[in-house]
Specification:
With 143 residues, the chain is an alpha+beta fold. It has one domain: HIT family, subunit A (2-Layer Sandwich). It has three helices and five strands, in the order αβββαββα. The protein has a five-stranded antiparallel beta sheet with strand order 1-2-3-5-4, with helices on both faces. The longest helix is centred in the middle third of the chain and has 22 residues. The radius of gyration is 15 Å and the shape is globular. The two termini are 28 Å apart. Bound molecules: zinc ion (ZN).
Length: 143
């Protein structure tokens, strides 16, 4: 944090119950709304807006982290498809929405924001277990 009011810069410190893993270039946290089971946010540690603002080595390392996390989510949740969303219109700090999707989900095959949905909140224990599952699976993937 450097005195800005960017919520993504603060997310790792504020959402401590949703922390999954600190990686080299990014933080991985579980999204509080679990309407889409396994929905995670992968947030760059540095406040940057566009991929092309990153040094090449950082960008390449970051993309490897995105890919490893997607593989972990795929192993944990067995979705029909992983969605990778990097928009930044609301919060211009590079962060991926990594979302396991199923053909049976009510919004399929549209984007997750195509219509509103009722938020799904888990118990503290359920959040803890889901974060642990993803963390342990991620640790088993070479990278
Ligand atoms: Zn930021």
């Amino acid at each position: 944090m450097t005195g800005t009011t960017c919520p993504m810069c603060e997310r790792w410190e504020t959402d401590t119950d949703l922390r999954i893993a600190e990686l080299t270039y990014s933080w991985l946290i579980l999204n509080r709304d679990q309407f889409f089971p396994g929905y995670c946010l992968l947030i760059t540690k540095k406040h940057q807006t566009e991929l092309f603002h990153l040094d090449t080595a950082v960008r390449q390392g970051l993309m490897e982290e995105v890919s490893r996390v997607a593989q972990a989510l795929s192993l944990c949740f067995r979705p029909d498809k992983l969605n990778y969303e990097l928009l930044g219109n609301m919060v211009p700090h590079i962060h991926w929405h990594l979302v396991p999707r199923y053909r049976t989900d009510p919004l399929w095959p549209r984007p997750i924001w195509s219509e509103p949905h009722q938020e799904v909140q888990l118990s503290a224990e359920e959040y803890r277990q889901r974060c642990n599952l993803i963390r342990q699976t991620l640790a088993g993937i070479a990278g």
